[in-house]
Please model this.
Amino acid sequence: MTLLTVTREVCAAVGVSLPTSVFSGINANRTMQEMLALANEMVQRIGYDTRDWTGLTEIQTFTGNGTVTAFPMPANFKRMLKTSEVWRSDSMSAPMRFIADPDEWLQRRMRVHADTRGEWTIQKKTMLIYPAMAAGVTANFMYLSRNLVQLSSGGGGVGDVFMADNDTGILDERMLKLGMIWQWKANKGAPYAEDMGSYSDALTNNMGSDRPAPTFVGHAPISAAAKVAIPWPASWGPQP
Model:
């Protein structure tokens, strides 16, 4: 659904006049100003705050040259994934060590000391990697893109806010619609508990199907992120 379609359905649900355009005459239309602000807030809330959506994840590769230790993040970088690791092509048995504390990073650099796997941190949207990777060695990781909207104007492209009536969300627009409905009602002081429940149900369902739980075969998980709770297949033991 386009932004205009979503907004019309939200307006129908909350009892305001259905627009023929969100952007046309918006400077004189307080309702559409609020609808646009709400759409942008809700699409970012869903995209950035709820989970690491597979539809928004990107892979980044930095290539060393033997001297460079600072690598600017891509323009669409929003944040690292919640379980992100940085893997070097010359040491794939274990990821590089993340140094979260700035003082620890500085201390380790002053001591000219580093983990044998390499170390990384982020400063001002730049990834710092130490020691410098040799020429041709790569550092690879996944991150969350800030781009949530498929733009319809200006030759297409993507962005983090809606710019035209025909723009569409990259994630499921029904979540956006339901989120806008409950938040609009909450903003206006109207009862919204049932609408918030509908939004929560849709969000939970999309979150579950976006990254299904790992499937176990015997005692071995197919995902490295899964953990084995018992050291034998679930079929072992007394049979009915």
About this structure: The chain has two domains: 3-52+171-210, 57-145. Residues 30-49 form the longest helix (20 residues).
